[in-house]
Write a structure and sequence with these properties.
heterodimer; A: about 100 residues; mainly alpha; 2 domains; flat; B: about 475 residues; Rossmann fold; 3 domains; six-stranded parallel sheet; elongated
Chain lengths: ~100, ~475
């Protein structure tokens, strides 16, 4: 393996390990109440695969590859758009007492 | 690296920071909505930047159509879904995300195969294999979970003879596929085969898991969808994918662990144990008599109480009774009764599901109490009202070492001065275990659909 691809791999692994730790740190103390929105919100973030889908849709020679790539963009968009919207809808339902008094 | 590329990289870094801050803010009720918006903004930046980076020309129209159609489906699904069906929706979103990861790996493979003399690194081979396997397992596993939650597939654990052996052989064949990929890295047919076998593997993994374990399965699949995106990040060389995928993978693992703790089971036991099926056979034949309450009995008890705790369970969600429980609670509050809700971590079909259902009914979240918060309070409570919950209030989890529930953290509803149980029928809970709470001397059971029972009690209360 060429040296520069190894160095870019080592950077990628650094990033991965640090991100896992950040993930554990920021999620660990979430109250039960917010578990469902947290899950659907993080689910929307996993729709980040849309970035990969856009990248692979460019430079495809064959029709099959081209349409599969569009298919990936389509599926990932459902994940992203639906995920963020439904999380917002859910969080909009969480109300505090003080707001109710204000009504 | 050109200046433009550098700027794009920095914007992608900004998007990653947006995800981290967004997830962080999702952890507190006051900032959660903002956090979600920040995450969405990060995603928007990421999408725009990937257009800049990929510089599509003839692909523009196709990309825009795909994004438009995907947005329409996403908006429709997010708007229309009932809150009770939230676990299905999250499962479906997980599934499409997993499928997208597989397709990305396949497409990258096809693109590279266009120049067959290309050298590919062992890391590319391993991560491409990993994203195909995990992505396909996420896709079919989620669809299977969806089917179970919708009731299309039996929610009981489905087992066939030699299932574990078959699953084991499939896994070995997937490993063999990885070795073959080292021989022929850019053989797309081989890659398709691995994907399809993984898809079958996903079905076999989820099918044997019972309906009561769905919170664990959904969390686990959520984590997988992140891991698949992370692996695809190595395949297409995108640090943003690696970061976002790792964040989601980590959060999914934490939620999975929390769910397992709340059910006092190990992950291994959930995935391979097929709970529920074996336990039913051990059920006690000698049922103790239950004291039956009319709605009037329950109303009188509540009328004389000064502190009441509601314990909602999945039965409440099934009969869509969240609005009725609020009406009853409001009526009691008007006559000065102190009300709170005790929410067990696995009440409902996914982590935190019950909180969303009660929030939908305009119940302020300050009244919803976690297990640890509320358990000390049952002793000073006049009436505990159990609505469609069973295993999470079963006191044998505390005392009876022979019980399959033993060791599971429960809500100590049996410590309340009296207990009203709203129950559909005489059956046991998901675990198939007798609940001694229901036959206590100070317990009374109102049989019937939760919604009808609650409105009958409210009606009688008004006439007192």
């Amino acid at each position: 393996m060429p040296a520069d691809s190894l160095s870019s791999l080592s950077v990628a692994i650094y990033v991965l390990v640090l991100a896992v730790f950040v993930g554990f740190e920021i999620i660990a103390k979430v109250p039960t109440m917010l578990h469902t929105p947290l899950m659907s919100g993080s689910n929307a973030i996993s729709g980040i695969i849309i970035v990969g889908a856009i990248a692979v849709s460019v430079g495809q020679d064959g029709m099959l590859g081209q349409y599969l790539a569009y298919g990936a963009v389509f599926l990932a968009t459902i994940n992203v758009v639906g995920g963020f919207l439904v999380t917002d809808r859910m969080l909009g339902m969480f109300k505090t007492k003080s707001k109710k008094v204000g009504k | 690296m050109s200046a433009l590329q550098f700027i794009v990289e920095m914007m992608l870094l900004l998007a990653s920071v947006g995800f981290i801050i967004g997830l962080r803010m999702l952890g507190s009720p006051t900032s959660a909505r903002m956090g979600n918006a920040i995450g969405a903004l990060g995603m928007l930046v990421a999408v725009i930047m990937s257009f800049v980076l990929a510089r599509p020309s003839s692909e523009y129209a196709g990309l825009l159509v795909a994004i438009l159609l995907g947005s329409l489906v996403g908006i429709y699904a997010a708007r229309k879904v009932e809150m009770t069906a939230m676990p299905q929706l999250v499962a479906a979103f997980n599934g499409v995300g997993g499928a997208a990861s597989v397709l990305v790996a396949v497409c990258e493979m096809m693109r590279l195969a266009q120049s067959p003399s290309l050298e590919v690194s062992p890391i590319f081979i391993c991560t491409a294999w990993f994203s195909a396997v995990v992505g396909a397992v996420t896709f079919t596993g989620s669809m299977c979970a969806y089917g179970k939650l919708e009731g299309w597939i039996s929610s009981r654990a489905v087992l066939f003879c030699g299932q574990r052996i078959v699953s084991g052989l499939i896994f070995l064949s997937l490993l063999a596929g990885l070795l073959l990929m080292f021989q022929e890295p850019l053989n797309t047919n081989l890659f398709w085969t691995i994907t399809i076998v993984s898809a079958i593997f996903g079905v076999l993994l989820v099918l044997p898991i019972g309906g009561a374990d769905m919170p664990v399965v959904i969390s686990l699949l959520n984590s997988y969808s992140g891991l698949a995106a992370m692996a695809a990040g190595f395949v297409v060389d995108s640090k943003l994918l690696i970061i976002a995928g790792a964040l989601v993978g980590a959060s999914g693992i934490i939620l999975t662990r929390l769910m397992c703790t709340a059910m006092n089971r190990s992950l291994m036991n959930v995935v391979f144990g097929a709970f529920g099926s074996s336990v039913i056979a051990q059920q006690n034949a000698d049922e103790k008599p239950l004291r039956e309450f009319t709605s009037m009995d329950a109303a009188m008890l509540l009328h004389d109480a000064s502190r009441v705790i509601f314990v909602p369970g999945y039965g409440l969600a099934v009969s869509q009774a969240q609005h009725n429980i609020r009406d009853l609670a409001n009526a009691l509050k008007e006559s000065g009764v102190d009300i709170r809700y005790a929410v067990h971590p696995v009440a409902g079909r996914m982590p935190g599901h019950m909180n969303v259902l009660l929030a939908e009914a305009d119940i302020p979240y300050e009244e919803l109490k976690d297990l640890e918060e509320v358990n000390g309070e049952f002793e000073n409570t006049d009436v505990a009202v159990i609505i469609g919950a069973n295993d999470v209030v079963n006191p044998s989890a505390r005392s009876d070492k022979s019980s399959p529930l033993y060791g599971m953290p429960i809500l100590n509803a049996d410590k309340a001065r009296s207990v009203i149980v709203l129950k559909r029928g005489r059956g046991t809970g998901f675990a198939g275990v007798e609940n001694p709470l229901f036959s206590l001397e100070r317990s009374g059971v109102v049989f019937g659909d939760a919604k009808k029972s609650l409105s009958a009690i409210l009606n009688d209360l008004k006439h007192l």
